[in-house]
Structure formats: C-alpha cells, structure tokens
C-alpha cells in the first residue's frame, strides 16, 4: 500500500467513525458544518499552543523492557489478514457482504445487477428499484463517505442484494480494480458503508476431451457448462455440422471465462474465449476477440474471422411467419403501412436468440414495440427484437452477445395481437428483409490491431504459435502467410 493510499484509507475511516458518532447524537445531517468547525478549532489550538501539539521532551520510559515474546504477540495482534482490510470493523463488514453472497448461492436471497447509463444517478437507480425514500437517502449518505457519487462513470455495475419480497439488504460496487465499496443494512435499519479489497476475480477455465458419441454430451461430461456448449455450437455454426462432421475419437479444447466474487458467487454469464476442434479431416482453432469498434467475433489464429450469416428465425423453437416484410395492411391500425420487419409467432416465453455476434445498444420499452432489444453487429448490420415478454436477466446496454445466444423471451408487450417477436434487420441504418441474404463478411485484422490480437491469443492459449503456423489452410490473398520465426 502506498503512502497516498494509506492516507486515503485513514481519512475514509475517520469519516466513517465521525459519521457514526454524529449519528448517535443525531447531528449527522450537519456533519459537513461540524467537520469544518472542528477543523477550525484544531487549527486555532495548533497555532496558539504548539507545545501541547508537538511534544518536545521524550516520553519517559516505564522501566519495563519488552521481551521478544511481547514483541511477537504485539505483531500478531496487529496483523490482520490482507483480504480483510486493516480494521476489525471493516473485516466484520466484509464477512457480512460474503454472507449476503452466500445466501444468494443458497437461494435465500436474490442478487440483481444494475448498471448506470449515461445521465443516471444512484438515487434514480434506487428509486427504480422501489427502495423507500428514507433508505435511499441513508444509502446515498453512507456511500458518499467513501466515494464521490457525482463522479460515477456510466457502465458501473451495482450488485443489489434483496429478499425474495424485494427488500434491499445491501449493495456493492467495484469502483476500480480491486476496490469494492459496499453498504449493508443493520438490524436497526441504518446503513453502514465499508470498503473491501480484491472482491471480484476473473478466471479462465480450460477443458479438453475426446468425443465419445456426440460433441455436446462429451463436452458436458468433460465439465464444459451447457451455456458454453451452446456458445461453441453457435460460434462454429455454418463451419461445422455437429451431426455429420464430428465423429467419436475427435478431440475438443475449450477455454471459457468465469467471473466470481471472493465468496464464490458467480456474476454475469460464462464467456467462451477459445474453441479448438480436431477431426480426422481438419483442425480448427477460434479465438473470441473484440475488435476496436467494440464488435466481438471469432477469429482464426491469423486474425481472420469467418463469414457469418444472420439468423433468419432467431427463435429456439419452430416459428410461424405471421407477417412478412414489406407493404401490408396493419392488423390493428387497418391502414397500409410498410412493415419494417417480420413477425414470427411462437409460444409465450420461447427463447429469442441474437441473430449474430454483437453489442446491445438498446434494451427497454420502446412505444409500440413493447419490450425491445437492439443489437449492433459488424459490417453495418443491426438487428432489433420487439414485443418481448422479458430480457435475459444479466443483459444490459453494452453487453456483448454471440450469435445464437439467448437474449430474451417471446411476449406480447406493446402494440401486439398475440405472442410473437417483431424481428428487424438493419443494414447501414435502413431496414432490409430479414429473410434475404444477410451476411457479415469475413474480416482480416491488420496492423496494430493484428499485433494486439496476436499477443492476446498468445497469452490465452499455450498452443497459439502452433495454431498460427499449423495445418490450417492459409488465408487466400496476394501475400502468402509466413509463420513467425521462433
Ligand atoms: Zn411486426
């Protein structure tokens, strides 16, 4: 810990202690004025009686010599586990945050993740969550002791711990790498703020195996979670037919990322980072990578992404086309308008998938569209989904989604006559027929971005150099690929 950090910590702690003391005598509301007067009084004393402030004579010795055992005891008393911060009060609080997380894991409590959009405030977020006004003010008051709430950046994600009835018990937010600020509700209904270190960690998990009967069965058996298996099949869709191209004896290699708090509570979904498949005919290696426009995609070890068509019917069940793209008479408004998408009728709560890899740019109610999601893809494409019954819980504006990943559920919100999804595809800011050929062409990373990709991939997979120089057919182009030396 640097000097600056420890000064910051000490000031923070003294603020909290003062706040508690003021609260006890019921003057917490005026804490800024009181702090100022105390400071002025201190300065006055310091100026008038320097001898009382700065001792000039050494403290007389008590005559007792400390034994080595005493020194050891003292050191043991002073030592606190680094994970638990440096104060017993704070350590106890950390335990209570861990307790909330444990109770979420046990299913006693629910945890919601909410992030700040541009222009949002914490107060606004809390009022959206229907937190009672008095609690809202106390939470903000308490957190203000730790951080500058006006400087919260958009995208910051709060973890809210609630009872099943929806009462808030605590919230935490990771403000910068390694520091989590939290506030928990005490038994008397007051709110206590504290900081916690090293709360959220990201781990990469690698699972390898051999196909026994089917890829998905064997991958699950090898410990690949089913959400990741789904991401693998979506990533390789169009390239590999998992029914006819994969045979017993073929091998697979999967790396995915898991985010966890230190008490083991998983947050967000698991993300596929790498997939490798080796059949008797070919070997493929695909790296998930987000390019500088913020669009995620899968690349081979030479930085080339495959062509990806947009899904035509992004539903996890048979869907009936109830209204095509183009001119039509509107079923409710009864006059002719241009239908900018297709309507796919399906049972209530049928999962809706992302039509291609991309980033969510809108998520929320949008007039006649009802509950609505819009995704930005590569190559000028966007897709939109309307009348949803609900969204996948952890998604928000800015979330990255992969082709085929579930984003929400069929509903009938907004101006709608029955459960269906209104599905739109946009190309360069104009709608196009979702049933036409819509494909994101393959892309070759180049220059600095390619260098960045190489160093990312090299760190991710121990066999990267082999993938890069391997049997995979070279990318066609004017200059043949030359494997790097060494
Ligand atoms: Zn429609």
Produce the secondary structure layout.
Layout: H1 3-24, H2 31-48, H3 50-53, H4 68-78, H5 88-105, E1 110-115, H6 122-128, H7 133-144, E2 157-162, E3 168-176, E4 179-185, E5 191-197, E6 200-210, H8 215-221, H9 226-236, E7 251-261, E8 271-278, E9 283-290, E10 296-299, E11 308-309, E12 320-323, E13 326-329, E14 336-339, E15 342-345, E16 351-353, E17 358-365, E18 371-376, E19 381-391, E20 400-401, E21 406-410, E22 420-427, E23 430-432, E24 439-440, H10 447-460, H11 464-469
Antiparallel strand pairs: 1-2, 2-3, 3-4, 4-5, 6-7, 7-8, 8-9, 9-10, 11-24, 12-15, 13-14, 15-22, 16-21, 17-18, 17-20, 18-19, 19-21, 19-22, 22-23
Zinc ion binds at residues 323, 339, 341, 343, 422.
Textual characterization of the structure:
The protein has helices at residues 3-24, 31-48, 50-53, 68-78, 88-105, 122-128, 133-144, 215-221, 226-236, 447-460, 464-469; strands at residues 110-115, 157-162, 168-176, 179-185, 191-197, 200-210, 251-261, 271-278, 283-290, 296-299, 308-309, 320-323, 326-329, 336-339, 342-345, 351-353, 358-365, 371-376, 381-391, 400-401, 406-410, 420-427, 430-432, 439-440. With 486 residues, it is of the alpha+beta class. A hairpin with a 4-residue loop joins strand 18 and strand 19. Helix 6 runs antiparallel to helix 7 (133-144). The structure holds zinc ion.
